[in-house]
């Protein structure tokens, strides 16, 4: 935002963090008990306990309560600090009464990025046990993440670097030779489907000479007819995606506007309190919409397998 008189960009945050007692922080949405029992919260709790708070919560001065602040972003981090009996926390102070939901616009760590972070930490001397304790994983999980790209060609690692591709999919790709890995990765990107089931379907259609260790029994069991059927199904899915794309943009625009409006409503503390008291069932559904990680994008695949994605968003603590 620019200052109309000087043309100088107006700052959105204070230049320095301010230490605020947790008792002065007011949550704009309640933390439900099932959220605190979930894996995401437990991972945040473990991380804060072991390595401290990495990213400060974003808060804004409460207009009618001197010294109190509304939490705009970082509700789970603040709750973790409370559970750990930490009395105060350094906060980033927002100067604008903006409905911008900060972490919704941050790309989450993908599996490849997570792997590179763990490799870098290990190269700096961190043991699997220490990493596991800090990140809330088991040491065996850390070792698996460390070996994620073994047997994966460099081109595929780059193609899938920003995708939400699970480790099981890499296990399937590892059974293919590099050329076929690239073809499979491009098909997954084009269809926006990174599941192990889709990867296994591509594995079944892979000629034996493009496999690292051909299994004649598995290929025989699949049969030519099954492979042909899978290829036909892939072509049908791509055709359906193209048909849906033609009518999708209008629906996506309506959903985007609706999500933005609900975000505005739920950033208003009096409205949230009123909904909690009078219509909690509406509040629950509104929060589900606002908490969507991303609005689903549409992807197209051209005849040569190249990918064209209309929008993308990714899966940090």
From TrEMBL:
InterPro entries named among the record's database cross-references: Chromosome_partition/occlusion, ParB/Sulfiredoxin_sf, Plasmid_RepB
Q: Which residues form the RepB plasmid partition domain?
A: 106-286
**What protein does this entry describe?**
Plasmid partitioning protein RepB C-terminal domain-containing protein
